[in-house]
Amino acid sequence: MSGGTHSSFLIPSGLSLFPFVISMRTLLQDLKYAFRLFRRAPLFTAIAIATLALGIGATTGVFSVVDGVLLRPLPYSHPDRLVAVHWTRDVGAQQSFSAADFLDFSRQSRSVAAMAALRDDVFTLGVNGVPTQIDGVLVSPAFFDVFGTHPLVGRLFNASDATRGAHLVVLSEGLWRQQFGADPQVVGRAIQIDQQAATIVGVVSASFTWPQAAVKLWALAPRGVPAPPMQVDGDYLTQHGVRYLDVVGRLREGVALPAAEGELAAIGHRLAQDYPDDENGLRASLTPLREQLVGNVRPVLLVLMGAVSILLLIACINVANLLLARGAGRVREIGIRAALGASRWRLVRQLVTESVLLSMAGGAAGLLLAAWITDGLVRLAPSGLPRLDAVHVDLGVAAFAVLAAIATGMLFGSVPAWQVSKTGPAEALQAGNTRSVAGGHRISNAMVVAQVALSLMLLIAAGLMARSLYSLMEQDPGFDPARVVSADVILPSSRYQTNEQQVAFYERFLDRLQAQGPMKNAAIVFPLPLASGGSAHASFTIAGRPPLPADVHPSAGMNIVSPGYFRVMHIPLLQGRALTDEDRLDGSPTHGLVINRTMSRQYWPNQNPLGAKVDLGFTATGEDKTYFTVVGVVADTRTGSLQSAPGPEIYLSYREFMLPFMTAVVRTDAGTAGVATALRSAIAGIDPDLGIGRVRPMPDVLSRAVSQPRLRALVLGAFAVLALVLASIGIYGLVSYSVATRTREFGIRLALGAERGSVISLVLGGGLRVLLLGVAIGLAGAWAATRVMSGLLYGVTATDPLTYAALAALLVAVGVLASYIPARRATRVDPLTALRSE
C-alpha cells in the first residue's frame, strides 16, 4: 500500500449511473424548453397560473381547516384512549353526571384508568385593581392526569391535594404571560379569586385548551368533586338526581371502547336499580373525545371540502382545454420533432413536464393565496367551532399543496399531451397555420360538458345554502332584539352560597338598574335566548292526570326570569298574566308558572291551561309537595337555535328557582357602552369586588346564531361564483377553438352568400348543444349529490325545483353569452383572407 490517503467508489457490476445522468439531463432540457415556451406566451401562462392558483389555493385553504379541526390528533398523550362519559336516554340528548354518579363510576370502573369531573365556571380576578370575570373550570384532582398533560411551569393537581382542602389553581399560558409577565416564580404565589385566597401551583401550555380555548384558569374543587352551581338540599356528593358535571376519562391500555362501554353500562344499570327515582331510563355510554368535540361540525367541513374539490377539478378541466387549444398551434412543431426521431413517449413526457411546471407555479401562487383564505375562514368561522387554534398553514398543509399541484399537473396535462402527440409527421407538415388536434374536438367537448355539469352542481349547492340562510334570517325569534343589550352577571358561589343571598343581590341589582332612567326597562334571565351559554330542562307531572308509564318522562325547557322580562323582550302575553313579585317559592300561595303556546297546545289541547297544577319536583319549606300554578301563556320564542322548532317551555320567577349565573337584558337607546357603564355602577354599589361578564347587543346574539349557516353560504357562494366564471371561460374557449379551426369553412360560407346571422346560429348551436348536455348531467348530479346536505338545510328541500331551474337558467344565459362573443367574430372573417391562408 502506497503512502498517503485516498478514497474510491466501487460501482457494482451491471449498474451504471449513465442512464440516470442522461434522464436528469433530459429532464432539465424539458424544463428549460417549457420555461422558454411560457415566456413566449405570457397571456396564456398568466391565465393558466391564475386559474390553478385559485383552485389549489381554495382547496388548500379549506384543507387547512379540515386538517386542523378533523384530522390532527388531539394535542394530548395517547388521544385515541380519551373518552367522554355521559348518560343517554333511548331518545334524547346526552345528559350530565351528578357528583354521586361520578364517584360511583370512578370507584367501580376497571376499564377506565383515570376519570375526572369538571364544570364550567366564571371567576372574578382583580386585574389592575378592576374586578374582571374570566372563564375557568372547576375540576377534580385527576383532571390533568386524564389528558397526560405536563406543566409548563410548576406542577399540576394530584390526588393528595383534595384532602388538604386548599384552594389551588393552574393558570393558562396566556393568563400567565398577560397578568404575571411570564414570571417563573409565580408558583406558590397567593392570588384573590372571587375574594378568596388561592395558591398558584402551575402553568399549562397554550396548546392545552380543554374544554375550550377561552379557558384561562383551572381550579381544584375543594372536596374533590366540583359543587353544583345552585343550592341543593343535603350533601351534593350523595345527590344522584342533581346532574351538572361533564366527565372525561382515559381508557386503560389494551381496553377497547366497546368493552369499556359495556362495563359502564353494567354499572349504570346497577345504579338505576339502586336509585330508580333518579336514574330510571338512563344508560351510561362513552364517546371518543375527538368525536365529542368535532362530531357536530364534521358534515359541514366535509361538504365544504367536497365543494372545493369540485372547484379544483373545474380549474383542471379549464387549463386542460387551454392546453388542448394551444396544442393546435403546436401541431407543426410536434410533427417536426416526430420526423426527427422523437418517440411518442418522449413527446408526451415533454408536454406533461410543461403541465407540471405550470401547475407547480400555480401551486406556489396558490399556497400564498391559501394563507389568506385560511385566515379569512378562521375569521368567518363561528365562535363555537372547535380547534380553531390548530388551524394554520404549516409544513403539512404546504406538502398537501405541493402534492395537489403535482397531481393537478398530471391530471390536466396528460389528456392534452396524449392527444397532441397523436399527430403524425406527414399531417403536421402539411401547409396550414391552424389545425385541430386529432380527436381534439371530441375531447374538448367532453371536458366542457363535465365543467358545466360540475359548475351547475356547485351553483345549486350554494343556492340551496343561500335560500336556507335566508329562511333562517326570516324566522321570527319570538322577541324583538332591537335596542336590547345583554350582559352576564355571575355570582361567585364562595360568597353567595345560599338562594337567599343570590336573590337578595339580584333584587338590589335590578332596583339600582331600574332607578336609572334609561335603564328602567331591565330584567334578568337564564338562559339568554339563542346564546350558547347553557340551558336547563325540568321534568314535570300534571296534577289530576293518570300516572305515566315508567319510560315516559315529559320535560320542558326551563327559563328563570324576573318580572318584566316579557315586557323588556316584547314577548306577547296570550292568556292570563305575567309573573309578578308575588310569585316566589316561599311565602306565596300560588307559586306562579308561565308556559309557552307550544306547551299549552301539547299538554292542554283544546283546553284552558290556566289554573292547572304542575309538579316540577321542587319543594318549598314546610310543604310536603309543591305545585306550581299555570298563571299565563306567552308566545313561542326560539331559545336554543333558529333551526329548531319551539318546544315546550316554562318560565319561573328567579325568586322561585335561583341560579347564580343570570344575564341582564336592558331595552334602551343608551347603546352597549352606556349599558356596560350602568351595569358596572349598579354592581359596584352592591359589591365592589364583583365584575360583569360579556356585554352583547341582542342583534349580535341573533347574528351569531346563524354564523355557521352564514359561513356555509358565503364559502359555497364564493366557490360557485368562481366555478361559474371558469365554466364561462371554458365555453368561450371551446367556441373560440371551434371558430379558429373552421376559419376556411366560414370564409367559404360567407363567400357563397351566407347571412351573418346563419353563421352566428351555426356557431351558437354547437356551443349550446354542449351547454345543454352539461346542464342536464349537472341537474342529475345535483339531485344525487345534494342529498348529503339535507341535514344542513332549513326551510328548503335538497331538491327544491325553483333553485334548480333558476340556477340552470343562469348558467345557460352565461354560456350563451360566452358563446356569442366568438360567434360574432366568426362573421368578421374575410373570405379572401381565409381562402388565401389555405
Note down, in words, how this protein is organized:
There is one protein chain. This protein is an alpha+beta fold and 838 residues long. Strands 12, 13, 14, 15, 16, 17, 18, 19, 20, 21, 22 and 23 form a twelve-stranded mixed sheet that branches. Strands 1, 2, 3, 4, 5, 6, 7, 8, 9, 10 and 11 form an eleven-stranded mixed sheet that branches. Helix 2 crosses helix 13 (395-420). The protein is elongated. The model is unreliable at 1-22 and 431-439 (pLDDT under 50).
Give the secondary structure arrangement, pairings included:
Elements: H1 18-40, H2 42-71, E1 82-88, E2 97-98, H3 99-108, E3 112-127, E4 130-139, H4 143-147, E5 153-154, H5 161-164, E6 168-172, H6 173-180, E7 190-193, E8 196-204, E9 217-220, E10 243-251, H7 257-274, H8 276-279, E11 283-288, H9 289-294, H10 298-328, H11 331-339, H12 344-380, H13 395-420, H14 425-428, H15 440-473, E12 484-490, H16 499-515, E13 522-526, E14 537-539, E15 541-542, E16 555-561, H17 565-569, E17 573-576, E18 592-596, H18 597-603, E19 613-615, E20 628-634, E21 649-653, E22 661-667, H19 671-684, E23 695-697, H20 698-705, H21 707-741, H22 743-751, H23 756-785, H24 801-826, H25 831-837
Parallel strand pairs: 4-9, 6-8, 16-21, 18-20
Antiparallel strand pairs: 1-10, 1-11, 2-10, 3-4, 3-10, 5-8, 6-9, 7-8, 12-22, 12-23, 13-16, 13-22, 14-16, 15-19, 17-20, 18-21, 19-20
Helix pairs in contact: 1-12, 2-10, 2-12, 2-13, 3-7, 10-13, 10-15, 10-21, 12-13, 15-21, 15-23, 15-24, 16-19, 21-23, 21-24, 22-25, 23-24
